[in-house]
Amino acid sequence: MAAPQKNRSVLLGRLPLPERNHLADALRTETVGGVLLLAAAVAALIWANTPIKDSYESISTFHLGPGALGLNLSVQHWAADGLLAVFFFVAGIELKRELVAGELRDPKAAILPVVAALCGMAIPAVVYTTVASSGGGSFQGWAVPTATDIAFALAVLAVIGTALPSALRAFLLTLAVVDDLFAILIIAVFFTSQLNFVALGFAVLGLAVFRLLLWKGVRGWYVYVPLAVVNWALMYNSGVHATIAGVAMGLMLRCHRHDGERVSPGEHIEHLVRPLSAGLAVPLFALFSAGVSLSGGALSDIFRRPETLGVVLGLVLGKAVGVFGGTWLAARFTRAELNPDLKWPDVLAVASLAGIGFTVSLLIGELAFGDDPVLSGEIKAAVLVGSLIAAVLASILLKLRDNKYKKLCAEEDRDEDQDGIPDIYEQDDPAYHLRMAAILEAKAAEHRRRAEVASGRTTGDDGPA
User: What sections of the protein cross the membrane (predicted)?
Assistant: First the structure.
């Protein structure tokens, strides 16, 4: 009698075709958004380091909004507290979808990305704390290097043209979703100012109304958009960071499909809002947050000051070691395992990409050092430098694996029977094997015909021309 086999969950394995198509659409939008984010960051740096830098400061600090409602904010704050709520709303939908339809729906499969994300946040925090304590610096920025910017990471992949397998890209996206979840918790727990319980109570009530309307099946953007704005404003005035309202509303959307539905409401709304997030909200946040002075003295100070050095080392070293080490530990000591077609250098390359911590790292830096504008600017510069170094190192590793990636992608996309469905998804379909047998027989017949023609020409027989 054969010994029972352990059921291991293969993470980074072949995704179901609908999940793969959804992932491809999401990645295309994120990649375009990442390129726009990169362009906005470069524009901000140029603007803040040229003779017209005073105009950048004037626009960033210009206040507008109804003061009676506690919303007379600077342009920079509107970008960080308002526009990023859209980004976190999409992150909430992504998290909900991963929980009900993605890798996180299976606890055994979810172990690996969750452990990798946790280690990928804990180790950078330890690195920052160690560097800051050894140099007598502030511990306030411990959370700055813990975040991963998925849009920026995918933009790097698009720029260097690496053909990552879809499953490995799925791991990066899943890792970033879990990373976003814990970043949200960090913001909510550690960077919440003095609470206004009246505003918080009304915010909770507004979210309950939002959930009730969804449960009742009420439709119409003219209902939900004004309610979402009210919930955001109440959350902002409560002392809890306003982006938490976006996450909460995203998590409330239904992301599983009922019978007869082509897409769930969550997927539909994500499809509508994601371009707004990736193409407008995040680039504008980058434009008004990444504009820091990068003079020679400022750049050298990054590697001399303990807080900024801790951020750089946390992103470059801590993230890579944490994500890679967490993945290895989960694969070694749990039932999750890597796809046999993938190698650990692939995971190391993605772990290095996780060190690109742009958007959320800049936000946490502002929250941690908002009362010290000089140090806040230096922390932003450290985030930019650390993310750049991580991107360069990851690009080198990805280029070294380029041939492997291309081979895997070619195998995934192979469609011998030309029916529009990759063959790898049809290997268990009897009809597929019949079609493939017919194709192979036709190819063999063509090969025999060509051999006969060549033989006739060689012997001088009167064969076909």
Answer: 31-48, 69-90, 110-131, 143-164, 170-190, 197-214, 276-299, 311-331, 347-369, 381-398
